[in-house]
Amino acid sequence: MCKMKSRYDELKEKLYRLGDLSPGSIQKRMLTCGDPNCKCAEGEKHGPYYYFTYTDPETGEPAQISIEESEVRELRKRIENYRSFKKDLQELLNLEVEMRKG
């Protein structure tokens, strides 16, 4: 029980320190423009272009936002923070239940 309580407290503290969170993922794409005279018509695509993909909280549907390459590094950190948050929160909730069972 003492070990569970210690881990519980550790997880709570970790969750408070995570920082900014972003649920979703980053997609890197090479695109064609549709101009038959363009180099991409021969296979040399344009890009890379980056997109943040996520689930729209209002509709529950997949959505995406175009992002600049300069934003990718910071957004990846936020996404990793969110994944860590979800994992640690689930463990925290499981420990809460186990500690209540006695």
Structure description:
It comes from candidate division MSBL1 archaeon SCGC-AAA259A05. Residues 6-76 form the DUF6788 domain. With 102 residues, this protein is α+β, with helices and mostly antiparallel strands. It has one domain (2-101). Helices cover 47% and strands 23% of the residues. The protein contains 2 helices and 3 strands. It has helices at 2-16, 69-101, and strands spanning 25-31, 46-55, 62-67. A 3-stranded antiparallel β-sheet has the order 1-2-3, with helices on one face. β2 (46-55) and β3 form a beta hairpin. The longest helix has 33 residues, at 69-101.
Q: Nutshell version of this structure?
A:
Helix 1 runs antiparallel to helix 2. It contains 2 helices and 3 strands. Helix content is 47%, strand content 23%.
Shape: elongated
Instruction: Quickly count the domains.
Output: 1
> What is the arithmetic mean of pLDDT?
91
The class by helix and strand makeup works out as: alpha+beta
The unreliable regions are none
Provide the spatial order of strands within the biggest beta sheet. Answer: 1-2-3
Tally of helical segments? 2
- Our measurement of the CA-to-CA distance between the termini, rounded to an integer number of angstroms, reads 8 Å
Largest sheet: 3 strands, antiparallel
Strand residue content? 15-25%
Fraction of residues in H or I helices: 40-55%
Number of strands: 3
- Overall radius of gyration: 21 Å
Order of helices and strands: HEEEH
- What is the chains' assembly state? single chain
Key terms for this structure?
DUF6788 domain-containing protein; elongated; 102 residues; DUF6788; 2 helices
